[in-house]
Design brief:
This protein has 90 residues and is an alpha/beta fold. The protein has one domain: Transcription Regulator spoIIAA, CATH 3.30.750.24. The protein has 3 helices and 4 strands, in the order ββαβαβα. The protein has a 4-stranded mixed sheet. The radius of gyration is 12 Å and the shape is globular.
Length: 90
């Protein structure tokens, strides 16, 4: 399975749910749906089981732009922490 992206607009936020593998082919779609929100963006990663370097960079960028990452898998959390220390390293 590649990456499945589901978007739900609630009155006070946009919830973006990811499932599967977040890879480079899905990054543009993810950034587009998150960038078009008129409310805070919450990205639910509870069903994400893999992310390549482009996917991790996209999540890092979204978080830096104010999105709230929820239910982040431990290995992605570690990669994000490494990026925060050194943005050139995944």
């Amino acid at each position: 399975m590649d990456c499945w992206i589901d978007v739900v607009d609630e009155p006070d936020r946009r919830v973006v749910r990811l499932a599967g593998r977040l890879g480079e082919p899905a990054v543009a779609d993810l950034l587009r749906v998150c960038g078009g929100a008129n409310a805070p963006v919450h990205v639910d990663l509870s069903d994400l089981f893999a992310a390549d370097a482009a996917g991790v960079h996209a999540l890092y960028r979204l978080e830096q732009d104010g999105a709230l990452l929820m239910s982040v898998p431990q290995y992605i959390l570690l990669k994000l922490q490494r990026l925060k220390r050194d943005p050139t390293n995944v």
